[in-house]
Amino acid sequence: MAPSALPKAVLAVLATVGALLVGARLAHPAATLPDALLAAVQRLNDHDMSPSSVDAEAGGNGTVTYDDFLAIEDVRAFLKMKGLSTKDYGDHPTLFKYVPREVTMSKTEKLMRGELGEAASAGYVAYAVAYYDGSENTASYLIVQDMEGSLLQVAPLYGEVLRNKGLSHANEGEIYKGIGLKNYNSTHLLVAFGKESALTGPRALFDVDSGAWIELCDGESNDSHDIQMAYKGAALWQADGRTVTKKFSAADGSELAEFQMTDIADPNHVQLVEEDKYAFVSSRQTDGIVRVHVATGDVVYTIGGEYGDFEIFDAAGRKWKKGTSLWVGQHNAEYFGDDEFCLFDNQEASASSTLNAFDVASTDASRSAMAATSPAPALSGGKAAKTSSRSRACLRPDSLSGLS
Ligand SMILES: *[C@@H]1O[C@H](CO)[C@@H](O)[C@H](O)[C@H]1NC(C)=O
Ligand SMILES: *[C@@H]1O[C@H](CO)[C@@H](O)[C@H](O)[C@H]1NC(C)=O
Ligand SMILES: *[C@@H]1O[C@H](CO)[C@@H](O)[C@H](O)[C@H]1NC(C)=O
User: Fold this and answer.
1) What is the average per-residue pLDDT within 198-221?
2) CA neighbours within 13 Å on the CB side: how many for 13?
3) What's the 276 CA to ligand 1 centre distance in angstroms?
């Protein structure tokens, strides 16, 4: 796998239903987890989901500090396992290797509410962060905050704590990173861990209310970049980072199905769509987002990069010819529905990664082709995809400043 060119701290956001725009800023020592994700959990059951006309810009921007983290029992337990007792908490250089000094959440209320309206305020923001002190990861957390920035759940991703909370195969003394992070249902998150410095690890469900873990796949490991539950049955999909995406039994981790992919290199993120008939595969080394027919592994079409089938127009209206790369070495290309993708444009070797949202196709023809449930040869005529600074469900690049 190619080395990641991500900035030191990278937080991307996934929204469940409708729109969410939230940024979390971590003060030094910052999060250093490549490919960390934010996920939003909407409490759909508890709130009226009717559209709201409320369009207020007002709303709190919360900051929590290490004191808030130290008030949490699991955090103190983690510190104790690391040899820090309460009387050591005043030793800030040491403390800040294990606990964030400050997390600031800022949001643009209107964008956060989006099509959900007022109900969006009852959502959560979940993200995984890890601290790298220059030689090793010393701390790693899954953090859930409400939309005002209050801490709702803080899970230290440390072997012993994880074991105590239900992840029975976690190794004591090892740090785990919450690399693949998705919504599972309205109360649980789905996590693909990376163990220590590896980009592979176990998979689990996290109960946001209780902080308990449910181990999946009998504690077996796989690639941690991405994870998705299958459309049917207790199974999940993960890419292997090379050429194959596999379906695993959530019960025992055995392989149930796979699809091979051609003209794809470093497929780090995959979303299965349309009842698992098709997949959007992010092919990092070819700068492409590839629609694959799952049963055959055939490429339906590719957006971007050397195998790209479409002209792409960037936010400035500039045309990128077929076969050229607007984004380079992207991470976490994520299909959000409604012809919209979100991705981290690493620009490969450059230090300036940006998070972009783009709409595929401004024309009716290609829009309907995108929505088609069968392979869409009409698209090979070269319809336009259009990048956009309109971030319906993504962090905007400017809200990421200060994170690196
Ligand atoms: C919250 O932060 C955002 C982004 O920095 C800013 O635009 C907004 O005005 C802030 N809102 C409040 C109430 O401070
Ligand atoms: C979410 O899934 C978990 C694990 O299967 C389950 O225990 C929980 O009840 C589910 N939550 C809802 C609201 O269905
Ligand atoms: C993924 O799971 C399969 C089946 O358990 C296993 O053979 C393979 O080594 C795993 N891959 C990784 C990267 O852990």
Assistant:
1) 97
2) 30
3) 40
Which pLDDT does position 272 carry in this prediction?
94
Instruction: Report how far Cα 350 is from the mean position of its chain's Cα atoms.
Output: 21
Q: How far does Cα 189 stand from its chain's mean position? A: 11
246 CA distance to ligand 3 middle (Å): 10
**Residues 6 or more apart in contact with residue 378 via CB below 8 angstroms:** 365, 366, 369
At 304, phi and psi to the nearest 5? Answer: 90, 155
Judged by its nearest atom, the ligand closest to the C-alpha of residue 213 is: 2
**Residue 97: both structure tokens together:** 């290797």
Q: Which residues line ligand 3 (CB under 6 A)?
A: 200, 220-223, 253, 255
pLDDT of 114: 81
Residue with tokens 């090979």: 380
Q: How far apart are CA 115 and CA 337, in angstroms?
A: 14
Please check the confidence at residue 144 and state whether its pLDDT lies above 60.
Answer: yes
* Entry field: residues in the chain: 404
Distance of CA 266 to CAs 162, 182, 187, Å? Answer: 30, 21, 32
323: alpha, beta or left? (left if phi > 0; alpha if psi -120 to 50): left
pLDDT of 342:
79
**What is the distance in A from the centroid of ligand 2 to the CA of 160?**
25
What secondary structure letter does DSSP report for 99? S
Cα–Cα distances (Å) from 123 to 5, 90, 111, in that order, read 31, 34, 13
- Close Cβ partners of 246 (under 8 Å, ≥ 6 residues apart): 222, 237, 238, 239, 240, 255, 257, 258
Residue ranges per domain, the chain? 261-362
**Looking at residue 172, what DSSP letter applies?**
T
First to last CA, the chain: 23
Is 216 close to ligand 2, i.e. is its CB under 6 Å away? Answer: no
What is the token pair recorded at 162?
A: 């994880």
